[in-house]
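Input (structure):
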């Protein structure tokens, strides 16, 4: 008769069931199985980790071995490079010594050539100085002769200058006399004119004064106007018996008729921006022709 756990007396010793196997409880067997499985898993994990660790260590050993080989190669290269550098330095020292000797030799040769050339130049200059001195003496004599001739010409020129001064003084006096004889009359616009020239000599005197610009004209009766000093003039009629003329002038695109004007009378008109009037003076009147000048303010 089996005893159920509920009917067992926990105060008494446990006794296995008759005919039961192993003499151990079932839960203990299960516990052992779980422990074995866990131990197997841990062993497998450790084996795997050991393999991985060994692989890492092997790889590190390979890298270390590679580095050691590279270091050995570098050490050999450094040794070879040092030997090569020492050989190059030795060769350069030999070349420097050779070059220095060549420079010293060349310097001595150049010094010898320069001294020789300087001596030749000095001798040549000495000879040239002697020749120049002799030549200079001859040129001095020539210069003395030329100076005498120049003084003679200068005396003659002084006389000519004196004559020119006399002519200029005479011309100036004549000009002043001519200007003094010029007259200033009132023009056809009632404005007091400048000095009036009645002939070419008086007009020349006015030009020298420089108060105005003067433009001479010889105007004939034509269909088209004639351009004089920026003004267009057209002769219409002349009266030789009474010395009168009629003309048209165009200034600033404006047509103005000057009718029955007399000889030597200032014919006045204004141009834009001019403060004083322009003046036309006719000195000669012929059949269908007048001769005179235009006076324009500066």
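Output (sequence):
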């Amino acid at each position: 008769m089996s005893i159920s756990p509920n009917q067992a007396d926990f105060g008494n010793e446990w006794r296995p069931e008759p005919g039961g196997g192993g003499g151990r409880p079932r839960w203990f067997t299960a516990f052992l199985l779980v422990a074995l499985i866990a131990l197997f898993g841990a062993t497998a994990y450790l084996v795997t980790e050991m393999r991985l660790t060994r692989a890492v260590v092997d790889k590190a050993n390979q890298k270390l071995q590679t580095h050691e080989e590279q270091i050995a190669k570098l050490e050999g290269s450094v040794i070879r490079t040092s030997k090569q550098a020492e050989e190059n330095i030795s060769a350069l020292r030999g070349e420097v010594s050779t070059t220095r000797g060549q420079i010293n030799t060349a310097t001595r040769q150049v010094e010898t050539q320069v001294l020789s050339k300087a001596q030749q130049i000095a001798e040549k200059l000495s000879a040239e100085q002697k020749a120049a001195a002799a030549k200079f003496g001859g040129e001095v004599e020539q210069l003395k002769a030329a100076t005498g001739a120049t003084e003679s010409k200068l005396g003659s020129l002084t006389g000519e200058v004196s004559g020119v001064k006399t002519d200029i003084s005479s011309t100036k006096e004549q000009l002043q006399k001519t200007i003094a004889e010029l007259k200033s009359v009132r023009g056809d616009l009632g404005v007091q004119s400048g000095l009036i020239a009645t002939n070419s000599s008086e007009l020349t005197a006015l030009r020298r004064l420089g108060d105005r610009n003067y433009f001479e004209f010889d105007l004939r009766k034509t269909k088209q106007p004639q351009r004089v000093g920026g003004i267009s003039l057209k002769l219409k009629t002349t009266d030789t018996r009474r010395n009168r003329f009629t003309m048209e002038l165009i200034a600033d695109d404006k047509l103005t008729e000057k009718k029955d004007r007399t000889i030597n009378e200032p014919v006045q008109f204004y141009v834009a921006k001019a403060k004083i009037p322009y003046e036309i003076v006719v000195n000669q009147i012929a059949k269908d022709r007048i001769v005179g000048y235009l006076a324009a303010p500066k």
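Notes: The chain has a mean pLDDT of 81. The two ends are 163 Å apart (CA to CA).
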